[in-house]
């Protein structure tokens, strides 16, 4: 497997490039959301492919919690070489995944410096989570928040919520299958 | 050796279907379509039964007088259906499992191809040649 740092460099360049191409310097909600959506869309496709390739030898997932455990352990280890630090749920479809030392943020600072810049670096990862969930049959909305670098939290809201928030916009409506979700 | 191989998406439409004797293609399409019901039945039965482990390989779905139909489901609810000639009794379970494993590997490769949009028909030549290697040779 290639060195983890290659992905970190690529990711940093992706964010920098998308931000540099933003034509209007006035940071109204419009311009920023486009770049975030593009990043999230890229992550989505990657997540779809990863969820196809990774669980190959494991047996079929029996319920949502199995899928979430797969995300926190196998997927996170494959992408970031470490497991997710904590997983909480309210048993009604909302999950909170917490990572206390997120590899893409750990090089920036540890504390409150650069807090405004941090969300850009989480958009791609939100996409990966959403893509993996969608391949495994769970429609969700993934948002992220940073309280203090390098810890970050990902909020997964399952169910048929309309995609209206900043991160997560830009998905085409997908035909729903008839019958209960397996 | 398979006579017909089909890859069905989560929403039950075919992503890839190919059968060897070209003239009876419609008959195989129909067989694959009817086997989807059996697949759904097996998957929901596995969900209810308190089995410790769930397997991806579903086994023999149903036999007809000429053919046997086998099924396999991935974690992303994509189904592989394979129709095999009944007269070829030398085919054992292990061989069918290994054929499905090859199919799954090739499907994963197709999925990871950035030029492939999930949900489109599979047009990859590599996938085609892998399936050809699994079908019986008809001159």
UniProtKB/TrEMBL annotation, chain A:
SUPFAM superfamilies: Ligand-binding domain in the NO signalling and Golgi transport. Signal peptide: none annotated. One of its GO terms (cellular component) is TRAPP complex. It is found in: Endoplasmic reticulum; Golgi apparatus, cis-Golgi network. Keywords: Endoplasmic reticulum, ER-Golgi transport, Golgi apparatus, Phosphoprotein, Transport. Pfam families: TRAPP. Its main location: endoplasmic reticulum. GO terms for biological process: endoplasmic reticulum to Golgi vesicle-mediated transport. InterPro entries: NO_sig/Golgi_transp_ligand-bd (IPR024096), TRAPP_component (IPR007194), TRAPPC6/Trs33 (IPR037992). Transmembrane segments: none annotated. Part of the multisubunit transport protein particle (TRAPP) complex. Heterodimer with TRAPPC3. The heterodimer TRAPPC3-TRAPPC6A interacts with TRAPPC2L. Interacts with TRAPPC2L. May play a role in vesicular transport during the biogenesis of melanosomes. Belongs to the TRAPP small subunits family. BET3 subfamily. PANTHER family: TRAFFICKING PROTEIN PARTICLE COMPLEX SUBUNIT 6A, TRAFFICKING PROTEIN PARTICLE COMPLEX SUBUNIT 6B. This is Trafficking protein particle complex subunit 6A. The gene is TRAPPC6A.
UniProtKB/TrEMBL annotation, chain B:
SUPFAM superfamilies: SNARE-like. One of its GO terms (biological process) is endoplasmic reticulum to Golgi vesicle-mediated transport. The keyword Endoplasmic reticulum applies. InterPro entries: Longin-like_dom_sf, Sedlin, TRAPPC2L. Transmembrane segments: none annotated. Belongs to the TRAPP small subunits family. Sedlin subfamily. This is Trafficking protein particle complex subunit 2-like protein. It comes from Rhinolophus ferrumequinum (Greater horseshoe bat).
